[in-house]
Write a structure and sequence with these properties.
mainly beta, Pnp Oxidase, Chain A, 3 helices, 35% strand
Length: 206
């Protein structure tokens, strides 16, 4: 099949999200201006540079009052956010925190999660998550509006501190098999890292 994305696709669900897979999940925590903790997962998330280390997460949304807008608004206002990587043990809690709730709802409490203090930013961390990236806010890019006319925005942050749980380190390397990172596929489907292999670039040394 071929789909001109400016026209209806005629399928049960939009296939685009099943074409760009798997997508890592960035579990973004922020503080609202009134101090309320906010936590929401984003599958449009990734690292975009390594020197300095930079990450981005992107969302649309109907307006302020939905998690997707709250995270970016809070990051812009506070100038910071934290990204936790989601291991398989936190799959259900991550899903609970994706609920669209009012800005004054604490998703940490909603999902039964304990907060941990950060080192360089005020935004809290998800206690027990295998990896946390403490970030300072860099910029927001407004993307074109789509068929829902709600707009999409990309929030970019610079990673200023990284927490790696001792139990996921092995011989000086991060051992992802110990926490099985969760990634988003299309539709309502997810996957986890169970099969790992090494592939060296031509001319590279192990």
């Amino acid at each position: 099949m071929f789909w001109n994305t400016s026209e209806p696709h005629g399928l049960p669900r939009n296939p685009f999200k099943s074409c760009v897979i798997p997508r890592p999940i960035g579990w973004i925590s922020t503080l609202a201006p009134d101090g309320t903790p906010n936590l929401a997962p984003y599958s449009f998330f990734n690292g975009v540079a390594d020197d300095p280390p930079m990450v981005m997460f992107s969302s649309g949304g109907a307006g302020i009052g939905t998690d997707v807008k709250d995270s970016i608004a809070n990051a812009e206002a506070a100038g910071e956010f934290v990204c936790a990587m989601v291991g398989f043990d936190h799959l259900d809690a991550m899903n609970e925190s994706s609920a669209s709730v009012a800005p004054d709802v604490d998703e940490f409490e909603l999902a039964g999660l304990e907060m941990g203090a950060s080192e360089m930013v005020k935004a809290p961390r998800v206690k027990g998550a295998p990896i946390h990236l403490e970030c300072t806010y860099y910029d927001t890019i407004q993307l074109p509006k789509g068929s829902r006319n709600d707009g999409n925005r990309v929030c970019i942050g610079q990673v200023v501190g990284i927490h790696i749980a001792d139990e996921v380190m092995k011989d000086g390397f991060i051992d992802v098999a110990t926490f099985r990172p969760v990634a988003r596929l299309g539709y309502m489907d997810y996957t986890t890292v169970d099969n790992i292999f090494t592939l060296l670039r031509p001319g590279a040394k192990g």
